[in-house]
Amino acid sequence: MQKIVLITGVSGAGKSVALKVLEDTGFYCVDNLPANFLSELVAHLREQGEEQVAVAIDARSGASVAELPHIIAGLRTFGADVRMMFLTASTPELVRRYSETRRRHPLSPTAIGVDADSTPSLIEAIERERDVVGKLAQYGHVVDTTSLSAPKLRHWVSEFVGREWTGLTLMFESFGFKRGIPLDADLVFDLRPLPNPFYDPALRPLTGRDKPVIEFLESVPDAIRLADDIERFVRTWLPAFVRDQRSYLTVAIGCTGGQHRSVWCSERLAKALTPEVPHVIVRHRELG
């Protein structure tokens, strides 16, 4: 079976990093391909014996981007395993990245510098691009790279292509509110009302994966009650997301710093729901 990975999303969010990871793992990679050429490219590479193909598609494809879901459906009728990763980041973070690299945004008519006059045109280009590609997010796995390091993004991309895919993938992602809510979250739960292990000097350097932190939180009745309520909510509504033919459901669990409470709860939820869901992933945004 031919494996096809599509990388899309907003410019500056890490598509080049993702494509390089796939190239290093043996994929035949094509960057900036117009969407309406995808079927022809895949057919040609199939004839050439290429079993793993990765293609980056962005807003420069113009109106043909809207046809991408139909193109993907057509490829799947020929037996191809087609997966899409949608990379995004907050507008302030994208502005910062472009200002640091001084590169031109694909939809910006002029080069972007660091002077204040360039910022409005850059923001307008970013928002225009979101309008063009934003609807594709519902068809793929969304990754918010706002707070991700390049090594962590490379790891997540490798994980993305390294698994068998059947049905819905349920992902629990811990995060710290002080660094913002993940843009890829479908559901968000707040654990900040719970006692914070950070204020115990013995627990401060540990994480929610460590036994002392687990024992601390599981001795708090409200912590168990809140985790059980979240588990009950996800379990109740999971069939509705499956009926909606969702490929991914990302449940974001947040606390202040993303080190103790949210990590503990994400691990607990994943363990509880793994027997019922074929694919469960746990990611901790703030941990190394």
Automatic annotation (TrEMBL):
<feature type="domain" description="RapZ C-terminal">
    <location>
        <begin position="169"/>
        <end position="287"/>
    </location>
</feature>
<dbReference type="GO" id="GO:0005525">
    <property type="term" value="F:GTP binding"/>
</dbReference>
<dbReference type="InterPro" id="IPR027417">
    <property type="entry name" value="P-loop_NTPase"/>
</dbReference>
<keyword id="KW-0342">GTP-binding</keyword>
<feature type="binding site">
    <location>
        <begin position="9"/>
        <end position="16"/>
    </location>
    <ligand>
        <name>ATP</name>
    </ligand>
</feature>
<keyword id="KW-0067">ATP-binding</keyword>
<dbReference type="InterPro" id="IPR053930">
    <property type="entry name" value="RapZ-like_N"/>
</dbReference>
<dbReference type="Pfam" id="PF22740">
    <property type="entry name" value="PapZ_C"/>
</dbReference>
<dbReference type="InterPro" id="IPR053931">
    <property type="entry name" value="RapZ_C"/>
</dbReference>
<protein>
    <submittedName>
        <fullName>RNase adapter RapZ</fullName>
    </submittedName>
</protein>
<keyword id="KW-0547">Nucleotide-binding</keyword>
<dbReference type="GO" id="GO:0005524">
    <property type="term" value="F:ATP binding"/>
</dbReference>
<dbReference type="Pfam" id="PF03668">
    <property type="entry name" value="RapZ-like_N"/>
</dbReference>
<feature type="domain" description="RapZ-like N-terminal">
    <location>
        <begin position="3"/>
        <end position="161"/>
    </location>
</feature>
<dbReference type="InterPro" id="IPR005337">
    <property type="entry name" value="RapZ-like"/>
</dbReference>
<feature type="binding site">
    <location>
        <begin position="58"/>
        <end position="61"/>
    </location>
    <ligand>
        <name>GTP</name>
    </ligand>
</feature>
